[in-house]
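Troubleshooting log. The previous structure file for this entry was overwritten by mistake, so regenerating from the original sequence record. Sequence copied from the archived sheet and checked twice against the printout by T.R.
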Amino acid sequence: MKYRLKKKNILILCGILVGIVLLNYAYTYAKYVANSTWNYYLQSKEFFFSSDSLDSEGFKNVNTTWDGNKTTFNIKNSISLDKITDYDIKYDVSCEVLQGDGAKCLMNGTGTNTFSGTLSSNQMCINKTDDNVDVSNYNKSKCEIDGYTWSKIEATKELYFEIDKNIDDVVVLVTLKTKEPYSKTITGTFTLHKGTKEIEKLVKSYESFTNYDILTIKNLYQTSKCVDIKFNSTKFRIDTDKLDIKKYEEDANGYVNKVSLQLERNNDYKIKFYKTKFDELYDESYFTVEESNNCN
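Regenerated output below.
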């Protein structure tokens, strides 16, 4: 008897679990159908609205080289170049810090976490013929009378949010809702990680070839840097061709032994040198690379 009751209870429990799974599936499917139906309805009204960083399912954005400054994202009155809304779209956008050590998110320079705006539609004359006539200033009437195409133009707006604290990691949820003429909600999470200071540096390396050597300097900083490169001019002759040298110094014999260069962020710079003694072997330790102010 106890065995039968135990078996019956197990069957009941299994039935409940199966029911929960089916209900969850049904809810998810119903939500998908509802979103698809609504999106179809909006498209039937030629209401097109999208973003590269937000969508109706919750787009996930990850930035592992965040510099701590503002994070931008766009919105568009289109879903493709041939599906563009031809009327203004009013919207509200907000941001919320999901993880971030008590930090706050500020939208578009407002000092708050919300912002409201209008994405304005635009139309212009397009020349799809081969006559090379500039029709960019034509109005609708002249455009069509002269046989050109009066067309809707995609409108894109850049928005941004900022974090009010100096922290290394933060997760932000952005929610944007259109309110006129139709309602649509798109969201996105932004997982931001600030690059550690250890990777922000100047890295030098040296390679020897048959007739010349190459000193490579990598600027791993997030900003451009002015650097002084010092070397022994009795061992090396620098090839200044194609180098944008800001300043230089010479030794007593008139040979260059120091140059100042402006290195752009996240770029490699290769500098050619000729050895005065071809049988000598050198490496990057023979060169001094230092930040300076000599590029001004």
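The longest helix spans residues 2-44. Archived copy saved in two places this time.
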